[in-house]
Design brief:
The complex is a heterodimer.
Chain A: E1 3-8, H1 17-25, H2 32-36, E2 47-51, E3 54-58, H3 67-71, E4 77-79, E5 85-87, H4 97-101, E6 108-109, E7 118-119, H5 125-129, H6 135-139, E8 145-149, H7 150-163, E9 183-186, H8 206-213, H9 216-250, H10 252-260
Parallel strand pairs in A: 1-9
Antiparallel strand pairs in A: 1-8, 2-3, 4-5, 6-7
Helix pairs in contact in A: 9-10
Chain B: H1 8-35, H2 46-58, H3 61-71, H4 81-102, H5 111-114, H6 121-147, H7 151-159, H8 161-181, H9 199-226, H10 232-259, H11 272-292, H12 294-297, H13 300-330, H14 338-361, H15 370-373
Helix pairs in contact in B: 1-14, 2-4, 2-13, 2-14, 3-4, 3-8, 3-9, 4-6, 4-14, 6-7, 6-8, 8-9, 9-10, 9-13, 10-11, 11-13
Classes of the chains: A alpha+beta, B mainly alpha.
């Protein structure tokens, strides 16, 4: 069963223990200065954003049909059956198309390193594969970040909204956005406040390019035949002329007749 | 050995190459952060927008002209096949050089050839560009075979030239349009003045226009610097073809804006508007209006001006898509750092340098007057039209 994370902003107290747990699991430094940073970066894969007294996490959404995995020319990014979208650093050549393509602008780059890599949350794939929960969910003291089977989390999110409709927006972010994501968000204020796009389609974005790419084999065969044929047509004239010249050389009489006509 | 004279342009060339060399050190010692204004919010800049996107586009003369000469059998254009193929070949080489700068780990540039992801447009572009560079080098090889006297190889090359050209046209069609398809996956990031499902079609049509404009432009340039050029009637023919191609492009572009209802986005105060207008003026209105005037269309300078405007217009178009159109969603402006500009200039300069050297030491321009090269079918007996001109 595909796993997922449900983050309920109404339960979040902004303690940032998820940030700390994430940093530890990924071998990244974490101190007060980094805790104060309000944006994701190569050294901060998840961030708890604050707007007045409201909180919202940002992390890789681990899309069901991820743009990053679709655009990566070397297949470094991959959607696993367990849910996490993983990154194989040994394949990455650093084209940064994943960063351009991601609808949530999640992948970040190690700009300061001479030999940089992409960094992003991979939903603790190693832990999830061993049957453990993600580091952020384990660190969360209030249950705001909950790890589980995605389908179960969807039902739970619906129940929470149904139980107290006044506390939530009637919107599970990630249920349908870009074809659905493994990370689901609940909030009491619009997601746009925290930079989550409100113009995202319910369709997986990779379809947009796949629709075009899938025509390529047809195009190549049609084009090859058409161009070859065109060459044959336009160059036949010369071939005929060459043939006639040869005929003339062989039988001067015939050539004279040809000349008369 | 004669000492080269110091001229203004040679001095400029040396300065550009020296500053490029310094910028290269900064790039590889300090990384992308030290050498570019790229950031997590703006991961693609000048090197992708200009060096790669425009570089590939400006090399479109190669497939346009080889198709005209070999497939459509328009032999009168044969005299400029070699310089055009050389420019295309150099263009692609320089695109690869630029990629080595832009890729975070350039030494892995070959990875897409072994680590496949056929769902990726970038994967397809990587393969097409690799294959097409190979095709161009084989197309160009006749020049080397001729220069260094390998008649057997030359004959072999002639035998495969038609399949080569067909492969070249197909590969170009694919990757020229695919550079547009790269942006299909960012409907929420690229400004709607430029984002359209027709991006691949528009990229291909504009590559055709640029291919024609580049051929006019190159001919005029080589007239100036090497005293070789196409005869005026041929230039005029190219000019007419360019007019038609630009017309088709403009109609498709406007239909697309109309159908998507994107006109209302042209607001007076929006920062995208002036750049969009500039682009449309340069790549459509100005050259079309100019070429519609018979006096301009028949005059070598008029044709030169029209082609230059058209080229500038499509460069603006690519930069608008890669940079301007992405700024709003990124929430920040991007302007290249000096190192980015310096390396770009150095790459262009080395292109000019290699071209000049090739013209000097290789049989690039035909030795026979071009009107003789328009061979009668009889004189061309037993010989396919080729990328070589041994008969001279």
């Amino acid at each position: 069963m595909s796993k997922g994370i449900l983050y309920d902003a109404t339960l979040c107290i902004g303690c940032k223990l998820c940030e700390k747990g994430c940093a530890e699991r990924n071998g990244l430094p974490y101190d007060d200065d980094i805790a104060a940073e309000q944006k994701q970066s190569a050294h901060k894969l998840t961030v708890v954003l604050t707007r007045n007294d409201k909180f919202m996490r940002r992390l890789c959404m681990n899309c069901q049909d991820p743009s990053c995995a679709s655009v990566c020319p070397v297949g470094a990014l991959r959607k696993t059956s367990e849910g996490p979208v993983t990154y194989d650093a040994s394949r990455c050549m650093g084209c940064r198309y994943c960063m351009v393509a991601c609808p949530f602008s999640v992948p970040k780059y190690e700009w300061d390193k001479p030999l940089p890599l992409v960094r992003k949350c991979d939903m603790c794939y190693d832990r999830v594969a061993r049957g453990l929960q993600t580091a952020c969910a384990e660190a969360c003291p209030t249950g705001a970040t909950k790890f589980g089977i995605r389908d179960d989390l969807v039902s739970e999110a619906k129940e929470r909204i149904a139980k107290s409709p006044e506390a939530y927006l009637n919107h599970i972010f990630g249920l349908n956005e870009v074809g659905g994501t493994s990370v689901l968000l609940l909030s009491s204020i619009p997601f746009g406040e925290f930079g989550y796009g409100n113009d995202l389609s319910g369709e997986a974005l990779p379809l947009l390019t796949y629709r075009v790419l899938s025509h390529i084999p047809d195009l190549v065969t049609i084009g090859g035949v058409a161009l070859g044929g065109l060459w044959w047509l336009t160059n036949r004239k010369d071939e005929v002329a060459r043939h006639e010249a040869e005929e003339r050389r062989k039988s001067p009489v015939g050539a004279n007749e040809y000349a008369k006509t | 050995m004669q000492r080269p004279k110091i001229t203004f342009w040679r001095a400029v060339l040396v300065l550009i190459l020296l500053s490029g060399a310094y910028a290269t050190i900064v790039r590889f010692a300090g990384g992308l952060g030290a050498s570019t204004n790229l950031s997590d919010a703006f991961p693609w800049g000048l090197w992708v927008g200009f060096d790669v996107m425009c570089g590939v586009m400006l090399a479109a003369g190669g497939f346009t002209l080889t198709a005209a000469v070999y497939i459509l059998n328009l032999r009168e254009f044969k005299p400029i096949i070699r310089p055009t193929v050389l420019t295309a070949f150099l263009g692609y080489l320089l695109v690869c050089v630029a990629l080595l700068f832009d890729l975070g780990r350039g030494y892995r540039i070959w990875h897409p050839l072994v680590m496949w992801n056929p769902r990726s447009v970038m994967f397809e572009v990587a393969w097409c560009v690799t294959l097409y560079s190979t095709v161009l080098s084989l197309e160009f090889s006749s020049v080397l075979f001729e220069r260094f006297r390998f008649p057997k190889l030359l004959r072999l090359q002639k035998m495969i030239v038609i399949p080569l050209v067909i492969a070249g046209v197909m590969l170009s069609t694919l990757h020229q349009s695919s550079l547009g398809s790269l942006y299909l996956i960012v409907p929420n990031k690229l400004h709607a003045l430029w984002y359209t499902p027709l991006l691949p079609v528009l990229f291909f049509l504009s590559a055709l226009c640029v291919g024609l404009a580049m051929t006019i432009f190159e001919s005029s340039m080589s007239a100036r610097h090497f005293g070789k050029q196409l005869e005026l009637p041929l230039l005029r023919q190219l000019g007419r073809a360019l007019l038609v191609a630009l017309g088709v492009y403009t109609v498709v572009r406007f239909q697309d804006l109309l159908h998507r209802g994107a006109w209302h986005l042209l607001q007076w105060r929006s920062p995208e508007t002036p750049l969009f207008v500039l682009e449309m003026l340069l790549c459509s209105f100005a050259p079309i209006c100019l070429l519609l005037i018979p006096k301009v269309r028949r005059n070598a300078d008029g044709l030169y001006l029209s082609s230059v405007l058209c080229l500038l217009g499509f460069v603006t178009n690519r930069l608008n898509i890669a940079i301007t159109g992405m700024e709003r969603s990124a929430g920040q402006q991007y302007f290249p750092k000096w190192t980015e500009i310096s390396i770009t200039l150095a790459i262009i300069a080395s292109g000019f340098l290699v071209f000049a050297l090739a013209v000097r030491y290789l049989p690039i321009f035909e030795k026979v007057a071009s009107h003789q090269a328009v061979a009668e079918p009889e004189t061309a007996a037993g010989e396919l039209p080729e990328l070589s001109h041994v008969q001279s």
